[in-house]
Amino acid sequence: xxxxxxxxxxxxxxxxxxxxxxxxxxxxxxxxxxxxxxxxxxxxxxxxxxxxxxxxxxxxxxxxxxxxxxxxxxxxxxxxxxxxxxxxxxxxxxxxxxxxxxxxxxxxxxxxxxxxxxxxxxxxxxxxxxxxxxxxxxxxxxx
Length: 143
Ligand SMILES: [Zn+2]
Hints:
6 strands, alpha+beta, CMP_dCMP_dom, binds zinc ion, zinc ion binding, two-stranded antiparallel ribbon, elongated
């Protein structure tokens, strides 16, 4: 029974563990891997003041709508043949999927800076309860 493995003392507490913000960003990036979006895979998670995740989302077609039938194009003659009218962004899905009554004091962790529509949703989710929904994000290298 060695107490050392790879030069580390196994009788001591680890000190190279993920900090909370890194952990939540990792959850967001993992959730993004569920996305079928060919251009940008984005994930988001909402975390409460006790560092508990209360909602997770990724970008995709609306519930019950076939992602085989709806378009994934970025450009077409008609806007209706592009993805834009249909795709629900990760932030929206994280808010809609929340398993808490509200998002008071919560933080949204998202891997891409929110668009104007999601910024409105985040503000409205906040103002419903007169609470603070702060935002943390990391710049995506896949833009
Ligand atoms: Zn958005």
